[in-house]
Write a structure and sequence with these properties.
TIM Barrel; alpha/beta
Length: 194
């Protein structure tokens, strides 16, 4: 069964081991454009049908290092690379690692490189979460929210696995105080641009 946390029940400081399940430079599947993808270790949602079940373990993989961070920054310098994607595991249960990297990206690239993240939290749950989660959220451009729901699985959806998940424009949503769907989402109303 999928776990549903109370607000601020699952804190990064209590669970994160600062481990990375994988790092994949220059891929095309984890968001718009060519991306560098960092898969953090650890997730408590335990969604049935999770595509990356091994990364649910907080001790899986290897420690996040300055050398890896430097490599990610170097890879992001490629002019054809659009940005970074945070996946997992659960990025919002690894906030120390993710905040450090996202702050460095903002320092070195400003908004020239975008940052995407997937999370099992819904936007509404995130608004009730801890300061570190909200700080990480403020550094992100696009958030794919919500737990993967096997009964709503739809492989035709853009950048997400189940119909309950949304592709959210974070800066616009924070400014407006409500969810604003990414304007390039072609299927938010089951409409496909041909």
């Amino acid at each position: 069964m999928i776990r549903n946390p109370l607000p601020q029940e699952w804190l990064s400081k209590d669970y994160s081991q600062h481990k990375i399940a994988d790092y994949k430079p220059y891929n095309f599947v984890d968001g718009e454009g060519v991306r560098c993808s960092l898969y953090v270790s650890g997730c408590l949602f335990a969604c049935p049908g999770c595509y990356n079940k091994v990364a649910q373990n907080f001790n899986y993989g290897h420690l996040y290092t300055k050398e890896l961070e430097d490599q990610i920054i170097e890879d992001l310098k490629a002019p054809y690379c659009q940005g970074l994607t945070l996946l997992g595991g659960e990025p919002f249960m690894n906030t120390e690692v993710c905040i450090s990297l996202c702050q460095r990206i903002r320092k070195e690239f400003g908004r020239d490189k975008d940052i995407w993240s997937w999370t099992g939290y819904t936007w509404e749950e995130m608004m009730l979460e801890s300061e570190d989660k909200l700080q990480l959220l403020s550094l992100i451009d696009i958030l794919v929210d919500g737990r993967f729901a096997l009964e709503l699985k739809d492989l035709t959806l853009q950048f997400r696995g189940s119909a309950n998940q949304r592709i959210i424009d974070v800066p616009k949503s924070l400014e407006k105080g409500e969810v604003v769907i990414w304007d390039k989402c072609v299927d938010s109303q089951r409409y496909f641009k041909l």
